Amino acid sequence: MEKVTRFEELRCWQAARILVRKVFMYTTTGELAKDRDTRSQVRRAALSVMNNIAEGFNRFSDKEKIRFLEISASSGTEVKSMLYLFEDLNLLPKETIEELRSETDKTINQTFGFIRYLKSKDK
C-alpha cells in the first residue's frame, strides 16, 4: 500500500466530499430551501464531516488525527439524525433520504476504518 501524502487521497474524505455535494444539492429546493436554519444546520454538519478529516490529516500525532476523525464521524451521525427529521416532516422524498443515509453510513464506516488502521499502527 502506497503512503497517502494528501488528504484528498483518503477514501473517507472522498466519500465525505460526495456526501457534502449531495446534501447541498438536495437542500436547495422544496421545503428545505425555505427553512434556512435547518438547511444551514445539516450543511454545517456535512461540512464538518469533510473538513475534520482534512484538518486531522495534517496533525502530527496519530492520537490527534484520531480525535479529528472521531469528530468527523460524530458529525456524520448528526447528519443521519437530521435525516430522520426530514423524513418525519416530509422535507425530502424518501428515496433522497435513503440515498443520503447510505452516503452518510459509507462515509462514517470509512472514517472508522481509517481510525482502526491508525490504532493498529501502535501495536
A few lines on this structure:
The chain has 123 residues and is mainly alpha-helical. 80% of the residues lie in helices and 0% in strands.
How would you describe this structure in keywords?
123 residues, mainly alpha, de novo design (two linked rop proteins), elongated
What is the terminal-to-terminal distance?
Answer: 18 Å
Strand content: under 5%
How would a textbook summarize the main sheet?
none
The CATH superfamily label reads 23S rRNA-intervening sequence
Overall average pLDDT: 95
- For this structure, what is the CATH class? Mainly Alpha
Radius of gyration: 15 Å
CATH architecture descriptor name: Up-down Bundle
Uncertain spans, ≥5 residues at pLDDT below 50?
none
At CATH level 3, the topology is de novo design (two linked rop proteins)
**H and E order:** HHHHH
Number of domains: 1
Q: Give the fraction of residues assigned to helices.
A: over 70%
Record field, number of beta strands: 0
Please identify the structural class as seen in this structure.
Answer: mainly alpha
Shape: elongated
Count of helices?
5
Task: Describe, in plain words, how this protein is organized in 3D.
There is one protein chain. The protein has 123 residues and is mainly α. It has one domain: de novo design (two linked rop proteins) (Up-down Bundle). It is built from five helices and no strands. Helix 1 packs antiparallel against helix 3, helix 3 packs antiparallel against helix 4 and helix 4 packs antiparallel against helix 5. The longest helix is centred in the last third of the chain and has 28 residues. The chain is elongated and about 50 Å long. It starts with 10 loop residues before the first helix and ends with a helix. The model has no long low-confidence stretch (mean pLDDT 95).
